[in-house]
Amino acid sequence: MKLLTKYYRANILATLVVVVLSSVCYYFLIHHVLIEQLDDALEVEEQEVIEYVKQNSVLPAPSSYEDQAVNFKEASGKGMQRTFRTISFFNHEDKAHLATRQLIFPIEVKGKIYNVFVLRSQEETDELVRLILIITVLIILLLLIILFLINRFMLQRLWEPFNSTLRHLKQFNLSGKYELQAQKTSINEFRELNDAVSIMTIKVNKEYDALKNLTEIASHEMQTPLAIINSKLDLLIQGENINEKQMEQLQAIYNALDRLSRLNKSLLLLAKIENNQFNLSVNISLDTVLREKLQQLEELSGNKSQVIYADIHPVNIKGNEELLDILVSNLLNNAIRYNLEGGTISVSLKDNLLVISNTSPLPALDENKIFLRFYRHAGTKPEGSGLGLSIVKQICHDAGYILRYFYREERHEFTVQF
């Protein structure tokens, strides 16, 4: 859940709860105040009746007006206790029961006790309360709409610098020389965040560049001593005074040196790919490259009595011819190297999809590790550099190709979607 969404929900829920509770309290408070005012009006009538009895020693005549009435009834005992209450009074003119506020109090006239009933219509009070309630509900709805609009638009604008920084961070790519372009903002917290992220990206880029340069320089510098060692070994092997045991040791050294040389070249190639030193916008006839590569590898596959099935259709793509040659070579070399004696290799190219599959004694490979550098299956021999599939993965990543691995019907399958 997004932060703004969570904030919206919490804010609106809290506002709704507070406003509803406040409205309920406000309703009862207003209702109480208006009833108090109504009771005050009834007490005024009470005082008028008492004053009239004091002055005249008789009860005033019963009265009945549109919204008020005063009646008297002789009590059989001490009279009723003074009290206020709300009753339903039938109005003959309107032919309806109306809410009425009533004050009952006893009064003594010439030794007799009378109960006085003072009634006043409560309809205006209730109507006023209902009107206030409607206005309150409308204010609540208006407040919620305003809050929603503020949260939806104003807060989104306030958070836009943060979202912009987040989008730039998602696009950040070390190999792409990406420089963070932070959006200007007047909010201190977002300014501090942008400054911190900018400093971090500069440091990361510098450290990454230093590491790449070190790898590239080291690989270049290793070429010369490797070439010297290789030439000296050639001279030693051609010597006349070398026995068979020494020859075997020299051959082992020669093989290890050859592997080290290939490893160095692979690391240098990876450094060049990561440094974007290849033009990836050249138009290439992929089917031509694939046919040439298959023709070159026929002799190698023939040594293992392997059968290659090819279904190649014309496909033109954009890329780099050297990298594409390396990609195809690495996939085909793996299909040959890790195949069965007398196994099969299938190569299919159509609709911008290259599929290379082969039989193999190896079980399914770990999809999470297969493209990692120097990863080897436990059942393979350390013949290669361990970087072949890593190079393929890096080429596909930089060129925008989609590389996938499958294990189907005891066959290892690699697909490249161009």
Key words describing this protein structure:
418 residues, Heat Shock Protein 90, Beta-Lactamase, rod-shaped, five-stranded mixed β-sheet, alpha+beta, 3 domains, Helix Hairpins, five-stranded antiparallel β-sheet
Number of distinct helices: 7
| Secondary-structure element order, N to C | HEEEEEHHHEHEEHEEHEE
Globally, the shape reads rod-shaped
CATH C-level category of the largest domain: Alpha Beta
- The CATH architecture of the largest domain can be given as 2-Layer Sandwich
Name the structural class: alpha+beta
Radius of gyration: 48 Å
Strand order of the largest sheet: 1-2-5-4-3
What is the typical, i.e. mean, pLDDT? 79
Task: Please state roughly what percent of the residues sit in beta strands, choosing from under 5%, 5-15%, 15-25%, 25-35%, 35-45% or over 45%.
Answer: 15-25%
Give the biggest sheet.
5 strands, antiparallel
* N→C terminal distance: 35 Å
For the record, the count of structural domains works out to 3
Helix content: 55-70%
Number of strands: 12
Here the CATH topology of the largest domain equals Beta-Lactamase
Q: Any low-confidence stretches, pLDDT <50, length ≥5?
A: none
